[in-house]
Design a protein that fits this description.
Length: 131
């Protein structure tokens, strides 16, 4: 996972993206400064094409704005976990039941980072609700 240091320029940010509207396929492509497609917004979903930290953050922020602050995350397991952790750090809700433990662990880690001297309570995994 690529991380940026405080004050460093991000590899990709929505405000720097070159936006291309593809009316034929009914989607919006977000290109970086080198012309690579980083994300695609097709209406009901936002697809991340380059899974680095900055692009995932941009995708999560756009999705949260479009879908009421909560997202479903699809893709490979490692991508889903990375995205869920980043969503927790951004305050974006994750709707996927199977990612709730990851989100809770990340929130606990955030709490430890904010208050390093406070003793940490272990995160006890909860069973998913019965349907």
């Amino acid at each position: 996972m690529q991380t940026a240091t405080a004050g460093a320029k991000k590899a990709f940010a929505l405000e720097d993206a070159r936006i291309q509207v593809d009316r034929r396929h009914q989607r919006i492509e977000y290109h970086d400064l080198t012309g690579r497609v980083r994300m695609t917004d097709s209406g009901p979903r936002v697809d991340v094409h380059i899974a680095d930290t900055d692009t995932i953050e941009a995708g999560l922020r756009l999705s949260a704005q479009k879908f009421g602050g909560e997202v479903f995350i699809t893709g490979e397991a490692a991508f889903r976990e990375q995205s869920a952790r980043q969503a927790a750090r951004l305050g974006v809700g994750v709707k996927d039941a199977d990612l709730q433990q990851v989100v809770e662990q990340e929130r606990a880690q955030i709490e430890v980072e904010r208050n390093p001297s406070r003793p940490r309570r272990p995160v006890v995994p909860r069973d998913p609700p019965l349907r």
